[in-house]
Amino acid sequence: MSRIAARFKSLAAEGRGALIPYLEAYDPDLETSLALLKAMPAAGADLIEVGMPFSDPSADGPVIQAAARRGLKAGATLPGVLAMVAEFRKENAETPVILMGYLNPIEAYGYDRFCTDAAKAGVDGLIIVDLPPEEADVIEKPAEEAGLDIIRLVAPTTSDERLRYVLSHASGFVYYVSITGITGTRTASKHDLKEALPRLRAATDLPVAIGFGIRSPEQAATAASIADGAVVASVLLATLAETLDADGKATAETLPRVLEQIRDLAAAVRADVPAADQTA
Amino acid sequence: MADPVEHGITANQANSLRHGPDERGHFGGWYGGRFVAETLMPLVLELEQAYNAAKADPSFQKELDFYLRDYVGRPSPLWFARRMTEELGGAKIYMKREELNHTGSHKLNNVMGQILLARRMGRTRIVAETGAGQHGVATATVCALFGMKCVIYMGATDVERQSPNVFRMRLLGAEVVPVTAGAGTLKDAMNEAMRDWVANVADTYFLVGTVAGPHPYPAMVRDFQSVIGEETKEQMQAAEGRLPDVVVAAIGGGSNAMGIFHPFLDDSSVRLIGVEAAGCGLDSGKTAASIERGRPGVLHGNRTYLLQNADGQIDEAHSISAGLDYPGVGPEHSWLSDIGRAEYVGATDTEALDAFQLCTRTEGIIPALESAHAIAYAAKIAPTLPKDTLLVVNISGRGDKDIFTVAEHLGVKL
């Protein structure tokens, strides 16, 4: 069983959903982001998304754009991101790591070689924002051979008919983009999420994680209870950005503040009864 | 005698270069495509259906023809450039006068087609990206004409160097949003327009200005621009009784070039030359020549030649012309380059400035800096060609917007 499947299975047995925090590789530098990655499981991360910085993140809001710029400025490359995951895997064999990013750096790396190297580094799945199933033939075969899941995004605009098509190309889990928009902007209401989930459940047996616009512990708890997981990204990157000095360098506050926020999110997700809903 | 028919197409059609892209939106099986976030996929598919339906509806073409004639001012003339021809002493130079269109460039051909389509689709809000501001002005113009809300994304650098066009757009009622990300040029404006679209899917139509982006944009924009080449073919027939020998056009995203090339793709005697902006020189590291100095990759919804580093990060382009300052190119051009049907060359900032003055001085036509790149290459090869060679250069826009930039480079204070 893959790490991703094993993790969702054990969480289901616990009767709770997953907290899936996001970090941008090399933000604001390799050392800090690697230390953050290593500390995330103990802070309550059940799965981790690692952003691969790209020069033109056209589906992302200002917060992730800025993080990607910091990462690139710090020298992020795809081989560097894979080396970072490999370093993490020396200490952690259980927590699934999903790489999230855009297609062009992967195409430049070479699809076969990338899938082989990513699996070797200990990557479990890929989310490629600008690769719809219509174009995914370039990577599906090498990913499957390497044992990498291709995690599919589905959106409120995805029709029932299209949902079946998209999910026929999905593995690992399904990432429900809960709003129409870019990352870190709007937030879906509990009502909207409750309406959306049965449609997804009817179309797939894969676990469903909700992302885009989850900011507070309450929202994370709601999403993780309605679905099987909550992805939290922009709000963590915003906290990280707040702790940087005037030159954009990490400070003594950077790691503690981000980890504290993850602990708060994890506590809410793990609470027996989800905290009072503030989004309905 | 009828052609044998297979899969609904005749053998003659199958041999044509004019039937791309395939149903996935790929040119030559690799370039183009639909590389967008899932949120946008249903919209892109809906657009394709709506465009196909419009294309098959004679009333749509009739409506478009009406606006092209009475509002845009088509057909545009094909002008024999006598003094430039004499000065250069070689090929007979004709100019396709797209700068005479309403709003001063070829951009309105495409914008008029897409705004009619957006209206058919019931959209009420238009977003667009712009580099030099020509596409932004054209879009703001049709939005004023039809009373639609209009938001134009423009790189902050371009807002500065194209201030007359910014003022025009605002007069026309558009909201112009300066984009400060990256180098603040066309690439960054395109990113921001895509972000707007994904956040406002219900009422918004993304009016792409060039033959790039996810399928069906490259094919649709090409179709709307092909009126340039179709007219050129007829006009040259009337003037000289035959096809031109050489057609030269400037390339940023490549819509004016695709528009004039496409009707000639199957006429193998016609040399098609796309002139990219070489900036400070093809090997200076400050260039916008995506085909000559880039390699294939994926950006802004399509696979095409891109200026990028070894890690697949997109480079900043450089050109004196804001309209050509883009690190990619339309996917059909990438394919035409690979199969050798069209040639792609470069003209530098300096060559474009020289050509800008040559055209103004000899023909009394102030060309856009974009078009000046095409003129520069035409002027370079014309003297090497026999006097009976018919060379058409596409004057895609007029240069009034560029006089400040040109004055600055010539050391003149306005």
From TrEMBL, chain A:
GO MF terms, alphabetically ordered: tryptophan synthase activity
GO cellular component: cytosol
This protein's UniProt keywords: Amino-acid biosynthesis, Aromatic amino acid biosynthesis, Lyase, Tryptophan biosynthesis
Keyword Amino-acid biosynthesis carried by entry: yes
E.C. no: 4.2.1.20
UniProt enzyme class: lyase
Catalytic residues as annotated in Swiss-Prot or TrEMBL: 49 (proton acceptor), 60 (proton acceptor)
One Pfam family cited in the UniProt record for this chain: Trp_syntA
Keyword Glycoprotein applies: no
InterPro entries hit by this protein: Aldolase_TIM, RibuloseP-bd_barrel, Trp_synthase_suA
Pathway named in the protein's UniProt entry: Amino-acid biosynthesis; L-tryptophan biosynthesis; L-tryptophan from chorismate: step 5/5
Catalytic reactions of this protein: (1S,2R)-1-C-(indol-3-yl)glycerol 3-phosphate + L-serine = D-glyceraldehyde 3-phosphate + L-tryptophan + H2O
Family designation: Belongs to the TrpA family.
NCBIfam families: trpA (TIGR00262)
Main function: The alpha subunit is responsible for the aldol cleavage of indoleglycerol phosphate to indole and glyceraldehyde 3-phosphate.
Subunit structure, interactors included: Tetramer of two alpha and two beta chains.
Name the UniProt record assigns to this protein: Tryptophan synthase alpha chain
Organism: Acetobacter senegalensis
This protein's encoding gene: trpA
UniProtKB/TrEMBL annotation, chain B:
Cofactors, names only: pyridoxal 5'-phosphate
SUPFAM superfamilies documented for this protein: Tryptophan synthase beta subunit-like PLP-dependent enzymes
E.C. designation(s): 4.2.1.20
Cellular component terms (Gene Ontology): cytoplasm
Modified residues (N6-(pyridoxal phosphate)lysine): 107
Known catalytic reactions: (1S,2R)-1-C-(indol-3-yl)glycerol 3-phosphate + L-serine = D-glyceraldehyde 3-phosphate + L-tryptophan + H2O
Subunit structure: Tetramer of two alpha and two beta chains.
Protein name: Tryptophan synthase beta chain
Species this protein is from: Acetobacter tropicalis NBRC 101654
